[in-house]
Protein: SOSS complex subunit A homolog
Amino acid sequence: MSRSRGSALAEKPEVQAMLDKDLFLIQSDRRTKMNAMQQLQLVRVLAQFFLERVDDGHRYSYFEAIFLGRSDDPTLHEYRLSVMFQLVSFSIQYPVLQILNHVMGWLCQMKNVEQERIYSDRLIDMIIEHFVRLSNEQNRMHEYLIPLEGTCSEFCALFVSRATLHGPLSPPMITLIVRYCTRNMQFILRHLRDTSWLGNDFAEKVVPKLVEQTLLDDDSDSLGSCLCYVLFRWHIDVLANEDRKGPTKRIEVLDLLLSADYPWTKRRACVLASAIGASTRPEAEIQKELQRLEVPEHFQPVIDLLCSKGIKKSSQTVLDAISEMHLVEEMDRMITEDDI
Structure:
């Protein structure tokens, strides 16, 4: 491979024949004779190979040749991809985090949206299964994914926009979503703008799940803050308009936030203020719904603020005012903590 550097490396028949025979041990029947232990050894060798070439300008050409060079043969292509996904899981722990950048580069270059969706979901499903679903206080497997917040923004965007569709919103998943959003929010919004199918699914399927989590979980203040920002910026920075392409789905979560099924908290009120600003519903209609709500007495000042005229244009000001309010519920908690 060192003698065949260049973007066409993956297309060289002699290189692909060598990889089939000497790396993947493919036999004449187009199957490999490697057992599970040999496959693990292969993955380790590949991880070390890319680790030693972290500064090599041709490293993506190597990745492309090894894993994508048999795209014309469905059987061999699928086998190489299966090894690639094993390598991703292994390299996160090894660690060789650049591998994930190569995988995300491959996904982002796909012209077939359906294939991009399938392989993106396959990646996220594996990550959730290996590092999030199995994470607990003892092994803390999800912490292997934390360094990716600073090394692979594309993965952070994919995780935030798809993870909740592949697993429950557990504390490890929420921790990762909040960290990725905190470090990469601007990039995530741009990525969702530039990847319309991802942005539309995020608006329709993912945001409602995240909003419901903030309504049910007492420890979701950080997640609530992230949602407030997304709601404020979605129609400004992400949605398609006459000047740019992008997702077409608006984020509509008012019905969820106005439901009588959830307790009233300051966090709920803040997300509600942001959702009002993002909603396409007429302001008068929203005010009528707010006035019909049955809320605890100490939350009535919040409702009065939310019903103020022109809130859709000044929702940020209203949000700031709510954030600064000391509600009776908070004062009671503060007094209790002081007593303790």
